[in-house]
Amino acid sequence: MDYLVVLIIAAGLGCIPASIAKNKGYSFGLWWFYGWMFFIIALIHACVLPDKNARQTPIYQYNQYNSTPYAPRTTPRQSAADELKKYKELLDQGVITEEEFQAKKEQLLRLI
């Protein structure tokens, strides 16, 4: 009869570390069994557990407006001129037609 009382008290005490662990995002049942078997150790362990529910802040946060690393920008004229040169080479090689070259040339000149 005395053993039954001790088991019931131990089962009740196992709820303490289990509820602490549950509040931190861990399984209640597993922590209840752990607390039932090794109450003092489970209580200390549950108290030092990291909280799974806590929001982790990233160490490095990107700027909300620009998440890409800094790269110096070229002026629109330089990039448009370079593209026009590439399209002229494609025209000379026969990869694109004269109409495609003229359409791309007009599009690039509008950007300037």
Blueprint (SSEs and pairs):
Blueprint: H1 2-13, H2 15-23, H3 28-37, H4 39-48, H5 76-93, H6 98-111
Describe this structure in words.
The mean pLDDT is 81. α2 packs antiparallel against α3 and α5 runs antiparallel to α6. The protein starts with a helix and ends with a helix. The radius of gyration is 35 Å and the shape is rod-shaped. The protein folds into two domains: 47 residues, no CATH class; 36 residues, no CATH class. By secondary structure, it is an all-alpha fold. The protein has six helices and no strands. Helices cover 65% and strands 0% of the residues.
Features:
112 residues; mainly alpha; 2 domains; 6 helices; 65% helix; 0% strand; rod-shaped
The total domain count is 2
Strand elements, count: 0
Strand content: under 5%
How far do the termini sit from each other? 94 Å
Main pleated-sheet profile: none
Outline, from the CA principal axes? rod-shaped
| Tally of separate helices | 6
| Percentage of residues assigned to helices | 55-70%
Question: What does the radius of gyration come to?
Answer: 35 Å
Give start-end ranges of low-pLDDT stretches.
none
Mean pLDDT: 81
Structural class: mainly alpha
Sketch the topology as an H/E string, one letter per element: HHHHHH
